[in-house]
Amino acid sequence: MAEQAPLLRVEGLSRSYALPRQSLFRAPPRLQALQDIAFQIEAGQCLGVIGESGSGKSTLARAVLALDRPQRRHDAGRVLLKGQDLQALDAKALRRARQDMQMVFQDPYASLDPRMSIGRIVAEPLAALHGGLGPRGRHERVRDSLEAVGLRAADMNRYPHEFSGGQRQRIAIARALVSRPKLIVADEPVSALDVSIQAQVLNLMQELARQYGLAYLLISHDLAVVDHLADQVLVLYQGRIVERGTPAQVFGAPEHPYTRRLVAAMP
User: Fold this and answer.
1) What is the CATH classification number for the domain harbouring 127?
2) Which residue range or ranges hold the ABC transporter domain (predicted)?
3) Are the C-beta atoms of residues 43 and 215 closer than 8 Å to each other?
4) Domain assignment of residue 113, yes or no
5) What is the rounded CA–CA span in Å between residue 97 and residue 228?
6) Rounded CA gap, 14 and 38, in Å?
């Protein structure tokens, strides 16, 4: 019997970006944002990626979600979701693949359109990914997603300004959950929240992972957040993976000097 492929596999991923041209007679210099990144995430697993600003975390998130197209001359590697190379898919096939992955952004204030009701905000992914559900099916899916994150069906008719920061992030999680993805990319999901609210949202994410079999790619600069949620940890430094292991291994006995500095600065 063939071994089942991991939910997400990243192989030899390298990404670079052109910097402003310094001479008319030379090609513009390039910033190597990621270099030879490789990892995998199994179904239901949380992989935490930590690193300072500029380490390549956001570039990695965009690559995993196939939001950027690699340049053949400068970039390399593959991102495979359930065995499918996302960069090799045409637009229609990529839309189908995106049913299995969603994103939760850092700022719950900026990521929700203030002119839209909560019901419309949460239903947004269904319009693109599940057009065959019909109005009743979409309504039931939105209701179930709101209730799963601790909100009420009646909240569908309210607007973002009527909610606190923690509640807004719950709405953002409900929007990610509504298409029933297999993978959620969470980019600094609690960094904009009060410390008293952060643990509540992280506990909610843990419960949803158990309930729906979700896997997370958790991107954060906060070691305590990653320690709380992650099964495995990658440490990114200047676009490279410099350390990997369980939270106990990475935080308890760091080997790379950069990781040791991060752990030493951890409250």
Assistant:
1) 3.40.50.300
2) 19-263
3) yes
4) yes
5) 29
6) 10
Helix intervals (H) in the chain: 57-64, 91-97, 118-129, 134-148, 165-177, 195-212, 223-229, 247-252, 257-264
Q: Is residue 3 part of a domain?
A: no
- Entry pTM: 0.91
Domain around 212 = 8-21+29-264
Helix pair 118-129, 165-177: axis angle to 10 deg? 20
Phi, psi of 194 (to 5 degrees): -60, 150
- Between CA 97 and CA 18 the distance in angstroms is 29
Distance CA 267, CA 250 (A): 16
Residue 234's DSSP bridge partners are 49, 244
Nearest partner of 35 among 68, 73, 92, 77, judged by Cα = 77
Q: Which pLDDT tens digit goes with each residue over 140-198?
A: 999 999 999 999 999 999 999 999 999 999 999 999 999 999 999 999 999 888 888 99
3-state secondary structure 49-83: EECCCCCCHHHHHHHHCCCCCCCCCCCEEEEEECC
State the distance between the two ends of the chain, measured CA to CA, in whole angstroms.
Answer: 48
Q: Are 149 and 121 in contact (CB under 8 A)?
A: no
Asked if residue 81 belongs to a domain, the reply is yes
pLDDT in tens, 54-96: 899 999 999 999 988 787 778 999 999 999 999 899 988 888 8
Spatial separation of the C-alpha atoms in residues 206 and 167, rounded to whole Å: 17
Domain count, the chain: 1
Taking the C-alpha atoms of residue 98 and residue 91, their distance in angstroms, rounded to an integer, is 10
> Quick check: is 2 in a domain?
no
If we measure between CA atoms, which residue out of 175, 104, 96, 182 comes closest to residue 132? Answer: 96
